TrEMBL record:
Every GH3 C-terminal domain range: 306-398
Pfam families: GH3, GH3_C, GH3_M
GO cellular component labels: cytoplasm
Protein known as: GHDC protein
Taxonomic lineage from the root: Eukaryota, Metazoa, Chordata, Craniata, Vertebrata
Source organism per UniProt: Onychorhynchus coronatus
One GO MF term: acid-amino acid ligase activity
Xref: InterPro entries: GH3, GH3_C, GH3_M
Position of the signal peptide: none
GH3 middle domain ranges (all copies): 215-284
Xref: PANTHER family: GH3 DOMAIN-CONTAINING PROTEIN
């Protein structure tokens, strides 16, 4: 199969598991594509979506998601809620929490309010598609007034599935897990595509499986693999040389351009489908924390953070980033190099010193190299900071890119922004 057929494989798998998913105007899209109005995979199916294409191409990410949310709210009979990234779905639902009275008013009047990041000519174009719907506005007010647990299914009672295109990795699935527990209770999440180095490489044919697995399609790119852990004199392996249960670093030669590169991705072979490997993304080698050469991958750090959070009664992790103290300069203090971790929590307003230390303790338990450096004093104690609600939504807006936000921050302007949001 060639990459354009990836869309057809996805739609076929979706329809097989959720028969009403391809209903006309039955899918709402939440995805920011600045300057390029299209769906995440680029398939030309205008009758599938109830979301106007220009709404996603607005210059402001926050405004684009809010306008798309408004058009989604108009359509009570949705069957599919689709987002390019889980973070986009999370931020759109955060806008619902914050702005539902105003959204209800716009629904009732059929009028799109002027707002920053919404050019007047585009507003007029979108305004022509709106009509007053006071009944739907009243329903929105009633459901939001009841609270937001399970709000997605209450607003769209015919919804069958949430499709999130870019959530293959565990750190991105953090948002999916949080949404499953709160706003999207009772709904399955489906991640249809595996993409790396700008190329579509695989498709998920099993929408109802909780952990995404992707069939690598050999005609979409030329795949090579390096065994993990690395050998002294490694040689690349081909698709037919892989072993189930083993991990491999991915090397890709993708079209167009025929460039060959290490993708920085580690995959685990979960099985085979018609002799082609079915893989699970394990980690990104490019995203690691390392102040003394200990190299903790972001995925494993995320697992440790979530384990520590389970020891904080009532806390729900909304988002986080990590920073190596050397990047903070004098503001990190005079102690040994260490990790600075910024978290947004729900359900807790503060953490005791004992609770904060739990994360450092869990890191020592999970990573013996880290424990050794901590014992010697060559790595200082981890510092944990709480940030204001909505800080990461603003950070993603400042990032100005539709790709996933890095968990290990290395840009000074983003560090300054998150530092300015610290509450304790």
């Amino acid at each position: 199969h060639s990459p354009p057929q990836g869309s057809l494989l996805y739609l076929d798998a979706l329809a097989a598991s959720f028969p009403r998913a391809l209903a006309r105007r039955g899918t709402a899209l939440l995805h920011w594509t600045p300057g390029c109005p299209r769906a995440p995979a680029g398939w030309p199916l205008p009758t599938l979506y109830c979301t106007p294409a220009p709404a996603g191409a607005l210059p402001s990410r926050a405004t684009a998601l809010r306008v798309q949310l408004l058009f989604a709210l108009r359509q009570r009979g949705l069957h599919v809620l689709e987002a390019g990234l889980a973070a986009e779905l999370r931020d759109a639902l955060a806008a619902l929490r914050d702005e539902w009275p105003r959204l209800a008013q716009e629904l009732a009047l059929g009028r799109l309010s002027p707002q920053p990041g919404l050019p007047e000519e585009v507003r007029s174009q979108l305004q022509a598609l709106l009509t007053p719907d006071p009944a739907r506005a009243a329903e929105l007010r009633a459901e939001c007034a009841r609270g937001f647990e399970g709000i997605v299914r209450r607003l769209w009672p015919q919804l069958e599935v949430v499709v999130v295109v870019g959530s293959a990795h565990s750190t991105e699935r953090l948002y999916c897990d949080a949404l499953r527990q709160a706003d999207c209770q009772g709904l399955p999440f489906y991640c249809p595509f595996y993409q790396a180095v700008g190329a579509l490489l695989g498709v998920n044919l099993w929408p109802e499986e909780p952990v995404p697995q992707f069939l690598l399609c050999p005609d979409w790119a030329f795949f090579e693999f390096l065994p993990c852990p690395a050998e002294e004199e490694p040689r690349t392996m081909l698709l037919d040389e892989l072993w189930e249960g083993h991990e491999y670093g991915l090397v890709v030669t993708a079209q167009p351009g025929e460039y060959r590169c290490c993708a920085g991705e580690v995959l685990r072979v979960a099985g085979f489908h018609k002799q082609c490997p079915v893989v699970e993304p394990v980690r990104r080698e490019s995203q690691t924390l390392s102040v003394r050469g200990e190299s903790i991958p972001e995925e494993r750090f995320c697992q440790t953070l979530r384990r520590a959070m389970n020891m904080w009664p009532g806390a729900r992790l909304i988002d986080y980033v990590c920073v190596e103290s050397s990047l903070l300069g004098d503001s990190s203090g005079a102690c040994a190099p260490h990790y600075e971790v910024f978290v947004e929590l729900q359900g807790l307003r503060d953490l005791s010193e004992g609770q904060r230390y739990k994360l450092d303790q869990c890191l020592q338990e999970d990573f013996l190299v880290y424990k050794s450096f901590r014992f010697k004093g060559s790595i200082g104690p981890l510092r944990l900071h709480l940030v204001r609600a909505g800080s990461f939504t603003r950070l993603r807006e400042a990032l100005g890119s539709p790709v996933p936000m890095p968990r290990v921050l290395r840009e000074e302007r983003l560090l300054q922004l998150i530092q300015g949001s610290v509450i304790s």
